[in-house]
Design goal:
Elements lengths: L4 E3 L27 E4 L7 E2 L5 E4 L10 E5 L10 H4 L1 E5 L3 E6 L6 E7 L14 E5 L2 E7 L1 H8 L3 E8 L6 E8 L8 E3 L1 E6 L8 E3 L2 E6 L6 E8 L18 E2 L4 E2 L5 E4 L19 H4 L1 E4 L4 H5 L3 E6 L4 E9 L12 E5 L2 E7 L1 H5 L6 E9 L7 E8 L11 E2 L1 E7 L15 H13 L2 H5 L10 H17 L16 E2 L19 H5 L4 E2 L2 H7 L8 E4 L3 E8 L3 E8 L6 H14 L8 E7 L2 E7 L20 H21 L3 E3 L8 E3 L5 E3 L6 E3 L7 E2 L2 E3 L6 H6 L1 E2 L1 H17 L10 H4 L1 H11 L16 H14 L10 H16 L4 H10 L1
Parallel strand pairs: 2-4, 15-26, 17-18, 31-35
Antiparallel strand pairs: 1-42, 2-14, 3-4, 5-6, 6-13, 7-12, 8-11, 8-14, 9-10, 9-12, 11-17, 11-30, 15-16, 17-29, 19-22, 20-21, 21-28, 22-27, 23-26, 23-29, 24-25, 24-27, 32-33, 33-34, 34-36, 35-36, 37-40, 38-39, 41-43
Helix pairs in contact: 6-8, 12-14, 12-18, 14-17, 16-17, 17-18
The structure holds 2-acetamido-2-deoxy-beta-D-glucopyranose (7 copies).
């Protein structure tokens, strides 16, 4: 069984930071105003976490008689701020908002929904439609189902409305009449004038003589990606408050090319056709290309895949800017959209005239549901027939917009929450009486570790059925913007460094480059007898280099899908980090399609093999404590010691290694992400990690914080104490998950019954209490209730003191209370 899950959330997060009234120059000469409304709010303006002002909506209601206002009874911890989500306006019958806007100006309309329990109304009863200036934006929309399927607490949708002659924008909200007792609600509305970025018709791929008239259509923003670069925060987007996301979740296959950034010698300059309204400089200053090897490039397509709704036309906008080559016919490639040739012989220099000039191209494609998957594929491949100097391709940015159909409709069906989530939720209801206390709160109730246990079962089943794990991607259908933003996500992050992540450039740095010959020589040509481990990445061999130094050699399995990316992450992370409690990378080898990492050999293997399921001599309690303290130090360093917070994401007992002196070393950085270096920040990302150790909050909301590592580390602590796996499906349901079961026993005061028999009676009770309290806090359901890694470390050191010197309890406790 694969130990890592790869549930990919095809969700785009969204955040806005524009300040209330903004005058945008451009197409309209008259002043155009933005409306930023917190629906149902009364009195004065409210301010969100970004300092944006949200005004009450009452003035803009065309008919307010049939609406009521309310405040949510539960504040989901993932809400970025109370404004505009905690207040709501509820409608029992058709109602309209009316805004006075500049005529002939395209508008962004952003709608915010937080499905929650308002005035004791059941959120799952709300079904409604939204129509704006004759365009149906939402129909039979259930925010509750959508949020559940997306495992998000709240939803935001962005539409771009075609300009109208009159100076009015009408937004009409109608509760569905099909379900009795149905009602409508909305938490926030933004109306923002936008520059006309859809002037040109888009060519329909496959029918080069047909165009889609984008200008007279309304659109829904589906995806907005900064290819090969980091996320771009809304306040860094030329005043247009768009958010651009990292492309790594959308890359398809194992060959994902290389990323790069514009060099200092090239200046990117806008032109008459492409201004910063089209995309900010940051988009054009990073790119993904195919890589240096023409033979490899000839044999693969650089591919991104996006999930969308069927039966709509989509405009795919590709942003290009060449900053590496300078001449025509140096880099020439084909562009495929949904397996059709959209462009043959694309030559960015040819289009732009020279280096450093951005260009963009729009392609339209109709997505049917016959093709089965409701996906948009964008693929690049060198045009070999043109005999370019380099067999390569480049892409800098990408946007996908849904175009209204002939009925002026943009609404798709509600997503279907995955079987996994439905089961997990049922499990939670069944096993966790405490769930009912929380009430029918929404937006991903799937949590709870008992939930996760069931998820594992489903996952294993799915994975067997379909090895590539396509079904395992949650949100296959997810075409929409999720919304989950924090005010601190501005400096957001992708797992990559800003610098050119091309591997050969790393070789020049801290990291040594090995030849394949050296590696083969040192491992007896990868002899099976040398294998010391097996991971998601591939096999780990024991070997020697330089005539005797013992090393561990991790060889990527070529069929490992995430391989290349994780390989790069690990090299980048480890070549920058040096710490006594982190494994040290000696170097790597990239040759002949092999990806190999070379580490110092850890004579005592993994922590797990000294805990259970082996015939090794059991570790003493003091040894175990010292190992936990070492690992905690390593993680604490990752979280706070480096320039950026680094979140390990896969903390478990097999990733804690022990050297010949029993010094603990945290290993396996393949999944690591750098996070914002602010404490309250989080990284939105794909859920990865190992079951049994997975932070339930991360699982629900795919928001990664260093507290996710703290959770996993709490599981490690219980594992060390109880000497049993984090997840044991053979045990009765309530015992299967160690975090759940140990937490339960700890609260019941029966923890002593489940600790490792080798330890019984051998731990000082004060020490055990401190240790167990710490572990229990680490596995708290909510990240905010968990201690920081620094606190964990302090508490573990304290329990070690208690073990060594029980007499000190009183004095130390006093000190602790003071601190
Ligand atoms: C908005 O609604 C008003 C009536 O409520 C109507 O007169 C006006 O034409 C509508 N405007 C648009 C653009 O549909
Ligand atoms: C798409 O259109 C076809 C044919 O009209 C219809 O059978 C199908 O249900 C539609 N699919 C969706 C997702 O609306
Ligand atoms: C494109 O082709 C691949 C296989 O070559 C297939 O898996 C995929 O579904 C196709 N995509 C579309 C949108 O037709
Ligand atoms: C690249 O994609 C196109 C369109 O789907 C396909 O025809 C071609 O075979 C692909 N090439 C490779 C090397 O996968
Ligand atoms: C979108 O709706 C408008 C107004 O009804 C219509 O003129 C336009 O043709 C529609 N777009 C498409 C692609 O059908
Ligand atoms: C409305 O949405 C619900 C939930 O997705 C679905 O079961 C129902 O069939 C939909 N009704 C219509 C008329 O589309
Ligand atoms: C905006 O982008 C620039 C250039 O990448 C970066 O230095 C700056 O920190 C960014 N600002 C914010 C608020 O993200």
């Amino acid at each position: 069984m694969k130990s890592t899950i790869q549930i990919v959330f095809f969700v785009l997060y969204f955040s806005f930071t524009m300040n209330s009234i903004h005058v945008l120059s451009g197409s309209s000469k008259s002043k155009s105003f933005s409306y930023i409304l917190s629906c149902g709010a009364s009195g004065s303006d409210g301010t969100d976490a970004d300092g944006r002002k949200w005004s009450p909506d009452i003035k803009f209601l065309a008919s307010s008689g049939n609406s009521e206002t309310a405040t949510a009874q539960f504040q989901d911890p993932s809400l970025p701020s109370t404004v505009p989500y905690m207040n709501v306006r509820i409608f029992r019958s058709t109602s309209s908002y009316k805004f006075s806007v500049s005529p002939k100006t395209r508008l962004w309309l952003r709608l915010h929904f937080y499905p929650s329990n308002y005035n004791n109304l059941d959120p799952s009863m709300a079904y409604f439609s939204v129509i704006a200036n004759g365009f149906t934006l939402l129909k039979n929309f259930s925010a509750s189902i959508t949020a559940k399927a997306l495992t998000l607490a709240y939803i935001a949708r962005e539409f771009s409305l075609t300009p109208v002659e009159s100076g009015d924008l009408n937004v009409t909200i109608t509760p569905s009449t099909e379900q009795s007792g149905s009602y409508a609600f909305i938490n926030g509305i933004e109306v923002i004038p936008m520059p006309d970025i859809f002037k040109k018709p888009a060519v329909l791929v496959e029918y080069s003589d047909q165009f889609v008239d984008v200008q007279s259509s309304s659109l829904q923003t589906m995806f907005r990606i900064n290819i090969g670069g980091q996320s771009i925060a809304p306040n860094n987007d030329s005043g247009l408050t768009r958010t651009w996301y990292d492309d790594s979740p959308y890359l398809f296959g194992a060959a994902i090319g290389v990323t790069s950034e514009v060099g200092k010698n090239v200046r990117i300059q806008y032109s008459k056709d492409v201004t910063e309204d089209i995309a900010p400089l940051n988009v054009y200053s990073t790119a993904r290309t195919m890589g240096p090897d023409p033979k490899v490039n000839k044999n693969y397509n650089l591919t991104w895949v996006f999930q969308v709704d069927a039966n709509f036309t989509y405009v795919v906008r590709l942003h290009f800017c060449e900053y590496q080559v300078t001449k025509i016919n140096q880099r020439v490639f084909d562009v495929f959209v949904n397996n059709q040739t959209a462009e043959s012989g694309a030559d960015v220099i040819g289009w732009a005239g020279s280096q450093g000039i951005p260009v963009y191209k729009d392609y339209a494609a109709y997505v049917t549901d016959q093709s089965g998957d409701d996906e948009i594929w964008v693929a690049l491949h060198p045009t070999v027939s043109m005999k370019p100097e380099y067999y390569d391709a480049i892409l800098n940015g990408l946007e996908v917009f849904k175009v209204n159909d002939t009925d002026a409709n943009l609404a798709g069906p509600n997503p279907v929450p995955s079987e996994m989530l439905v089961n997990a939720e049922a499990a939670e209801k069944e096993f966790s009486p405490s769930a009912s206390r929380v009430g029918p709160l929404l937006g991903g109730v799937a949590g709870g570790l008992t939930g996760c246990v069931l998820v594992v079962a489903v996952f294993v089943f799915v994975n067997k059925k379909n090895n590539v794990g396509k079904d395992c991607k949650m949100g296959n259908w997810l075409p929409l913007y999720g919304n989950s933003h924090t005010s601190t996500s501005k400096s957001t992050i992708s797992g990559k460094s800003n610098t050119d992540s091309h591997l050969s450039s790393l070789a020049a740095g801290l990291c040594r480059h090995f030849s394949l010959w050296e590696i083969k020589h040192g491992t007896k040509n990868f002899d099976e007898s040398q294998v010391i481990g097996l991971g998601g990445f591939g096999k780990v061999y024991r070997g020697t280099i330089d005539g005797g130094t013992n090393v561990a050699i991790k060889r990527s399995n070529p069929s490992s899908e995430q391989g290349v990316y994780e390989f790069q992450t690990e090299i980048e992370m480890l070549s920058k980090l040096r710490h006594r409690h982190l494994v040290s990378l000696i170097g790597f080898c990239e040759e002949d399609g092999e990806m190999i990492l070379v580490y110092y050999y850890m004579a005592n293997g993994t922590l797990r093999e000294h805990l259970y399921k082996s015939n090794k001599h059991p570790l003493s309690w003091k040894q175990r404590l010292e190992i936990c303290i070492g690992a905690a130090r390593g993680l604490h360093y990752l979280h706070t010691g480096a320039r950026y917070t680094i979140i390990h994401r896969d903390v478990k007992t097999t990733n804690i290694l022990l050297d010949e002196n029993w010094v603990a070393k945290v290993s396996d950085f393949g999944l690591s992400k750098t996070g914002p270096n602010l404490n309250q920040g989080h990284v939105s990302t794909m859920v990865k990690g190992s079951f049994g150790y997975l932070d339930p909050e991360y699982f629900r909301r795919q928001q990664l914080t260093e507290k996710s590592d703290v959770y996993s580390f709490g599981v490690v602590l219980f594992e060390v104490l109880c000497a049993r796996p984090a997840l044991n499906a053979n045990l009765p349901k309530e015992q299967a998950s160690l975090a759940d079961w140990a937490g339960h026993c700890q609260r019941k005061g029966t923890l002593h019954e489940i600790i490792d028999p080798h330890l019984r009676g051998k731990i000082n009770p004060e020490c055990l209490k401190k240790f167990a309290d710490t572990a229990e806090k680490c596995v708290s359901n909510h990240g905010i209730d968990r201690p920081s890694m620094g606190d964990v470390l302090w508490n573990l050191e304290f329990s070690l003191q208690l073990e060594k010197n029980p007499g000190m309890v009183v004095a130390a406790e006093k000190k602790a209370n003071k601190a």
